[in-house]
Design brief:
By secondary structure, this protein is an alpha/beta fold. The chain has 19 helices and 16 strands. The strands form five sheets. The protein has a five-stranded parallel beta sheet, sandwiched between helices. Keywords: ATP-binding, DNA-binding, Nucleotide-binding, Phosphoprotein, Transcription, Transcription regulation.
């Protein structure tokens, strides 16, 4: 069903939809649309937001949410607010006038699979009850069941998702699950860590570049937005993206258009964006790390991933899954002794699921034989809460830059110079930590030296 007060728009949409072998009904206002709904429930509704007798979103309330009808909203006002509001209310996607007919075709190509997708999500809910699994995610704690419910609701839509959680909580796995349960699952899923790309190269990596556009550009390069066309682009550590590039990212999200570095030719992309951060996004806005307008565009559907210490019995469930994977890979039959199981549940796991997985791998390696139980490997004390006497005192009036410096160097010292662990505790990427240490120079070199004057293991890592 097509609801629009502009006859030419109705005719153009009906023609393009008819090419796909679909029948159409049309209406010029809400009254006519409601008459059509009484006659027959459509599979898809294309509706203008601004109609002579009200808003197209009023039609959402006229249909049972369980009917499976997909809503595509149309707006002549290319504002972020109108599109975001419609997506939050349940629209599957949106179009901006003048309507791009290629985008209509792309939307139609995805919609017929929506029914199958809803059935699959229902199957996954049953799998969760039986095994504690949901797609690629594992755990059956109440906190994770809330996450699964949110993912199940938003995955089939076109809404942007913002994943918020501490380092190591599984944000990329959550993003992959969102993609696998979406209408884009047959297309690419590309994950990008914004904090791991040099600020000088990130624009080229995102949007691509033409041959000769800068020194070293000896060939044309397709960026992430071009390679992810039709699929999902996951931007991890979004607050590490340079502010000037965030402006260009916002434009792509609003218009679907971008330009490769070194050309003025606009290219089109159809990408579903999932972003993630281990910071409080509102605090990041206040600190100038994230543009407010971009935050509103990304924050259509926020999902908070709980830290591991809030997931109860999931710790043991995850540890056993990691051990089962190792046993399967190396054809062994190792298990956890009771003492290890008790220790797993009593530890705080500040490094979250990533730390737990690393621990299981160490314990597996330390066990002596193929059939032996895994060894009781001491947990890294440097990751637990600081002991008495390790607090950092920052006098009133200290600049933020100097306070950052003191905190980073003190944390690195407490971690014995191991940069990966210091970065996890500080909630920043390893790349960001390296950049700060380069700025701090000689003081940082002293903090990165472990006991006995030996350089720590992290000094051999590739930045």
């Amino acid at each position: 069903m097509i609801v629009d007060d502009d006859p030419s728009t109705r005719e153009a949409l009906a023609a393009i939809i008819g090419e796909d072998g679909l029948t159409t009904a049309t209406a010029g206002d809400l009254r006519e649309a409601r008459i059509q709904l009484v006659r027959q429930t459509p599979d898809v509704v294309f509706t203008d937001l601004k109609l002579p007798d009200g808003s197209g979103v009023d039609l959402f309330e006229d249909l049972d949410p369980r009917s499976g009808v997909e809503f595509i909203v149309i707006t002549g006002h290319a504002t972020v607010e109108s599109a975001v509001s419609a997506l939050k209310m349940g629209a599957a996607d949106y179009l901006v006038k003048p309507i791009n007919m290629q985008r209509v075709k792309a939307i139609l190509s995805r919609l017929p699979r929506a029914g199958d997708l809803k059935a699959e999500i229902g199957t996954l809910r049953g799998e969760l009850r039986r095994m504690g699994r949901f797609g690629l995610m594992l755990g059956n704690s109440p906190a994770m069941q809330t996450v699964y419910d949110q993912i199940g609701r938003v995955a089939p839509t076109a809404a942007s998702v913002l994943l918020i959680g501490e380092s190591g909580t599984g944000k990329e796995v959550a993003a992959q699950t969102l993609h696998e349960l979406s209408l884009r699952r047959k297309h690419s899923f590309i994950a990008v860590n914004c904090g791991a790309i040099s600020p000088n190269l990130i624009e080229s990596e995102m949007f691509g570049h033409e041959r000769g556009s800068f020194t070293g550009a000896d060939r044309q390069h397709k960026g992430y937005f071009e390679r992810a066309n039709g699929g999902t682009l996951f931007l991890d550590e979004i607050t590490e993206m340079p502010i000037e590039l965030q402006v260009k990212l916002l434009r792509v999200l609003e218009t679907g258009m971008f330009m490769r570095v070194g050309t003025t030719k606009e290219l089109e992309t159809d990408v579903r964006l999932i972003a993630a951060t281990n910071r409080d996004p509102e605090q990041a806005v206040l600190e100038g790390k994230l543009r407010l307008d971009l935050y509103h565009r990304l924050n259509v559907f926020p999902i908070n991933l709980p830290p591991l210490h809030e997931r109860g019995k999931d710790v043991e469930l995850l540890a056993q899954a990691f051990l089962d994977e190792l046993n399967s890979r190396y054809n062994t039959k190792k298990g956890f002794p009771q003492a290890v199981r008790e220790m797993l549940g009593s530890y705080n796991w500040p490094g979250n699921v990533r730390e737990l997985k690393n621990y299981v791998q160490r314990a597996y390696i330390m066990s002596s034989s193929d059939s032996d139980s895994t060894a009781t490997v001491p947990l890294q004390i440097s990751l637990s809460k600081p002991s008495a006497g390790t607090a950092v005192t920052i006098p009133f009036g200290t600049s933020l830059a100097q306070a950052d410096r003191q905190l980073i160097l003190a944390t690195l010292d407490q971690c014995g110079g191991v940069k990966t662990r210091a970065a996890e505790i500080l909630g920043i990427s390893l790349k960001t930590l390296y950049n700060r240490l380069v700025e701090y120079g000689e003081d940082a070199s002293k903090a990165a030296v472990g006991e006995g004057g030996e350089v720590s293991e992290s000094d051999h890592e590739n930045p």
